[in-house]
Each structure stands twice: as structure tokens, then as C-alpha cells.
Amino acid sequence: MKTAISYLRFSSKKQSGNDSYRRQIEATEKFCKENNLVLSKRLEDLGISAWKGKNLSDESALGGFLKLVEAGRIPKGTVLICENLDRISRAKILDALGLFSSILKKGIEVVTSMDGKWYSEKSVTENPADLMISIIYLTRGNNESETKSNRIVASWIKRRDKIKNGEFAKFHCPSWISHNGSKYLLVKENAATVKLVFNLYIKGYGVYSLIRELEKRKVKSFTKSGQWKPVFIHRLLQNPAVIGTCEAVTPPAANYYPAAVSEEIFYKAISQRQQNQNHRGKTGSKQINIFGGICKCHKCGSSMVKYTCKGKKNLKQYTFLICSRSRVGKCKYEFTDFNKFSDSFLSVLHTRNFSEFLRPVRTKDNSDVTRGKILELTKTIQRVAKAIVVTDSPSLVQELKLLESQKRHLESQYEKEKLESMAATDSGRDYDAIVATLNDGLKDNDFRTSLRNFIRRTISSLIVKADGYQVNFRNHKEHIRIKLNQNDFEAVVNGEETYFDYFAFKSEVPAGSIRHKIKW
Ligand SMILES: [Zn+2]
């Protein structure tokens, strides 16, 4: 049986906190037991840095030990155990290597308990690669943050395994969850608030109108600042902890916490969030544009944008929709009076029940939920892929394959669901609510948000011409065409002509205010 001497060093008082001290001692004892070593002495340099070799001075434990080594008073074959080579020296690489080789030359063997590496004069001579490894570790000693984070990772492994097994592991959790030391629980009041935020969001509230609503209802914020801030709502809306998922492990552990909202609501919100981002308008504009992102040019298919100018004579303000490409000279300038277009569209909306154009709901539409799941899964896949690069773990590669096949499965399911209930959903019910509020609601941005969301859900595009427009529904089967016909407007519904003169609108272009002359 060989004799071992352990060496512990902490550079700061903070570092010598109970946990790290105990961890180093435990690791050493475990190592001795496993390798049949008798621990004869513990050298400890607490609160001493190895940066400038202070731990090698005569007063230090290691310095004293080295003196004994130098004097040949430590028997050959004695094993010096340390957590890592950076415990011995953090000096510049050549100095560190010199110290390291002088210890080995005296017949002392050095073992690092962190990875079980065993260095002796013989092993290093026979296996120069070992020396290379030690150089790498000694260099790392100079890079404190890296090794420190390695040790933090090591202390994480324990808790991570617990989380993976669904066991209780104590660590920082979100504000609507607390624990009693052995189990996570919902903080009732805060969990109810989380639920409310999600419900409002999927009803069509934007983040800002949602905050106004929370303030109006005097809902107490559980954030540190005590205020509702947009960034918090944004984060909350995409935090899978609300459905109980713990993201501290890769891949995240599902159903680890008690859920505050249902999976259906969460994935719907995820899906809706992405849609809102696709259609994001100018922020800070006074009024929400209810047609944001769906008006397209009849010539080139590009987005139509709002354009405002003043009449020279009457100084009246005119707002038009024009093709965005016409502004860079790539499409023809055509002006569609925005207010009249909008009025006409809303009267169509008011008069013709939009649900007529939608297929009846046969099955419950789950496509939003599936889409949200796909988005979340994509995030997980990216995380696992990153973890593979760092850890090179074969079990993670397996995990990744599994996740990718799950994703493919979900994607084909999504395509099916989307076809089955193309925008049919519960738009009929929403339609009634919207029409009932249409007259008074338009000044209210919250209402405009729900109206915009309704329009996006039912209509795929509005093809706009100077003298009319076509409404294309998402079901890809029906459309309404509103067109100037002499002085009347002609509406063609699904190819059958009908006349609705009250849909009429005509653009008034102020004289002299436009660069290009247009024939009307
Ligand atoms: Zn165009």
C-alpha cells in the first residue's frame, strides 16, 4: 500500500466556504479508498494564492513539503493528491512546469482527484503525451475562470441527475413556484397571475395593452421591481417553466414543476408570439394598423405601405396605400385611399358574415398547439446539439436523434391539422364579438389588436388596386372582390357577381401633391 499526502489550497476566504472545502476532502478520501492509498498527511494552504508562488514560500504548507522533498525526507513513491494541477501552481507555464518536474524527479507521484490522472517520472517518460496533458492543465491554472467553471459544472452534475430523475433538487426557481424543502409548490396568487397573462395574450392582447390591462385590474406584479415591464412579459410568455418544464438540464425535464398553465395555452401563445413577430409593425405608432402585413400589391405582390401627404390647396391630410416597391421605382405608383379602403372593408366585414366564407369546424383545431410544440422542440434540439459539441457525449447524440424524429413527426402532424381546419377554428364566435364592438371599438387599441388578429386568422391577403381590392380567405377557396364599376362598386363573391354599392370607395388624390400623374 502506498502512502498519500493530500494538498488543499484556497486562494480566497470566500472560496474556502464549506462546500468547496468539503468537496475537495471528499474527493481525496474517495480517491484514496478506490486506489488503495493510505492518507498519511493533509497539507492545507487556506487563503493563499498560487499566482505568484506564495504557496511555495517556507511558511506555507506546500513550501514546507517541497523543502522536505528537496532534502530527500519524503520517501520515493509517495503520492501527492490534489484536486487539480492548478492547486499547486498558477505561475507562468515554464515556472509551473519546472516545479512540477522537480517534484516528479524526486520520486514523488502526483495525482489529480478531479480526473484521476496519475503522473510519475516513469509515466511521463514513457508516455510523453501525459506531459502534454499536464502542460494543458498547468496552462489552465492560469485561466482561473475556466477551471472554476469546470468545478461548478461538477457540482451541478449531482443536482442535474436528480432533476433528470424527476427528484427534488434545490435551486433557483421562478417566482410563481416555491418549495418546502422536498417538493415544489405553486404560489397560488402568482400562478393565477401567470394564467391571466397567458389568457389575455391568446385573446389577442399585445404585450403593451396586456400591461395596461393588468394595471387597470390592479394585478400585483411579482417581479423584483414590483412593476410590469414588457421584457418580463415577453420572457414569461416563452418560459416553459409555466407548464412545469425545468430547463436547467439538457434536454429540459418535462413536468418537473407543478404547471401554472395548460400545455395547450402555452403552445398557442408560443405560436401566436411568432405570428405577431412576423407581422410586427412600427412600434410606438399611435394606432395599430389592423391590416398590418396583409395588404399586397396587385401587380407585384409586395406589401402595400401607408403613405401620408398634404393637399397643397386645402392642406388636408391624405393617407394612401402604395406598393412598397414603387417607392424605389420598381413598381408602378398607384394610390389607394386608405381611409376609404378601410371603411369599405369594415362595412364588408359588418355586412357579410365572414363565417360564411369559412368551412364549418369539424374537429378541434390543434395546429397552433402543435406549432408551438415544434418551436419549443427546435430550441431544445439546438441546445442538445450545442451540448454535444462541448461534451461529446454519445447518449446526447442518441437523444438528438430521438428529438429530431419527434420533430419530423410533429411537422407532418402540423401539416395535416392545418389542412383539416384551415383557419376555421372558432372564428365564428370571434366574429360575432368583433362585429358587436366594431362601431365603438375602433378608437381602442386593444380592440384594434383583437380585430387585427381576427383578420390575420381568417384572411391570408388583401390584394389592393387603386380602384378595388380582393379579399383572400385562408381556406384558399373563397374570396370577395370589390371593384369600381363606373360609379358603383361591384362585389364578386366566389365568382358570382353581386352588387353592393355601399362598399364603394373612390380615392381622392390631392392635386399637385404627387410626383407621378395617375389616370383614374
Ligand atoms: Zn407593386
Task: Tell me what the structure shows.
Helix content is 44%, strand content 16%. The C terminus is likely disordered. The strands form four sheets. A six-stranded mixed sheet has the order 8-12-13-14-15-16. With 520 residues, it is an alpha/beta fold. Helix 7 packs across helix 10, helix 10 crosses helix 12 and helix 12 runs antiparallel to helix 13. A hairpin with a 2-residue loop joins strand 12 and strand 13. The protein starts with a strand and ends in a 21-residue tail after the last strand. It has four domains: 158 residues, Resolvase, N-terminal catalytic domain (Rossmann fold); 113 residues, Alpha-Beta Complex (Hect, E3 ligase catalytic domain fold); 114 residues, no CATH class; 54 residues. The chain is elongated and about 105 Å long. Zinc ion (ZN) binds next to loops.
Short structural summary:
This protein is α/β, with parallel strands linked by helices and 520 residues long. The protein has 4 domains: 2-159, 3-Layer(aba) Sandwich (Rossmann fold), CATH 3.40.50.1390; 166-278, Alpha-Beta Complex (Hect, E3 ligase catalytic domain fold), CATH 3.90.1750; 295-353 and 449-503, no CATH class; 367-420. The protein has helices at residues 18-34, 61-70, 93-105, 121-126, 128-142, 144-164, 188-203, 207-216, 230-237, 263-278, 338-351, 367-391, 394-420, 427-441, 445-458; strands spanning 2-10, 37-46, 79-82, 109-112, 117-119, 177-179, 184-186, 295-297, 304-310, 317-323, 336-337, 459-465, 468-473, 479-485, 488-493, 496-499.
